[in-house]
Amino acid sequence: QVQLVESGGGLVQPGGSLRLSCVGSGDMWTINAMGWFRQAPGKQRELVATVTRGGITNYTESLKGRFSIFRDSDKNMVWLQMNSLKPEDTAVYYCYAHKVGLTHRDYWGRGTQVTVSS
Predict the structure, then answer these.
(1) In degrees rounded to 5, what are phi and psi of residue 61?
(2) Which of 36, 34, 10, 6 shows the shortest CA–CA distance to 22?
(3) Each residue's pLDDT tens digit, 84-108
(4) Sign (positive/negative) of CA torsion 11, 17, 23, 28?
């Protein structure tokens, strides 16, 4: 089992920045990719960014240049740096981890709210 706990959400003005953090515990040695998804009210959960244990990143194209993902596998942590935030970035942000091996499984944190508003 893997547990993921996010932190760092909050209220920020348009144009501001936030850094989200996620720490994993449990069988983290089984995890390859970690990352972030988000879900805005009335919308489906969508990919923000992921990073593999080897450092390969994948971003939603529209967020490239504003959002950056970082990972420290030794500390079982992943961060999302969000700059130039817009009201449309308002959502619950979920930490994600993908287990590999004989079986594959996705794990999710409980989410952290990010609200971009003046």
Answers:
(1) -55, -40
(2) 6
(3) 999 999 999 999 999 988 888 999 9
(4) positive
